[in-house]
Amino acid sequence: MTNFSSQVNILGQLYFEYRDEKTFKSFIEFNDLGLPLAYLTAEGLAIPSEDGKRFIMETFELFMQTVGIPDTGFETLDDVLDAGQELE
Known about the structure:
Layout: H1 4-18, H2 25-30, H3 34-42, H4 50-67, H5 77-86
Helix pairs in contact: 1-3, 1-4, 3-4
């Protein structure tokens, strides 16, 4: 299982790099709270409350479902995207 710090970094990078891309458009629109919060946390601009942490973790679970892979413990966004492509 991916640790919270990695979840924050993965989601923050996803939000920063893909927020204007069609690839994850509906996912990003649906997760309009968890993704920006993860990004702000990853950049050191926010410290999430317990509810904020829950939003981030739920967003990460939804991301795993979106890319269609189990959470086997990822460290980077590239790791997640590579694992998703291996299943195709």
